[in-house]
């Protein structure tokens, strides 16, 4: 799971998506 977040952050534009994904998965 952590790798997915890292990939999203490295994209830069996908940072918002990563944050949203974390919120939905970690509540």
Explain this structure to me?
- The chain has 27 residues and is mainly α.
- The protein has one domain (1-27).
- Helix content is 81%, strand content 0%.
- It is built from 2 helices and no strands.
- The relative contact order is 0.21.
- The mean pLDDT is 73.
Main β-sheet description:
none
Mean pLDDT: 73
What structural category arises from helix and sheet content?
mainly alpha
Note the quaternary state here.
single chain
- When the domains are counted, the total is 1
Tertiary shape: flat
Low-confidence stretches: none
Descriptive key words:
81% helix; mainly alpha
Protein topology:
Blueprint: H1 2-11, H2 15-26
Helix pairs in contact: 1-2
Question: How would you sum up this structure in a few lines?
Answer:
With 27 residues, the protein is mainly α. 81% of the residues lie in helices and 0% in strands.
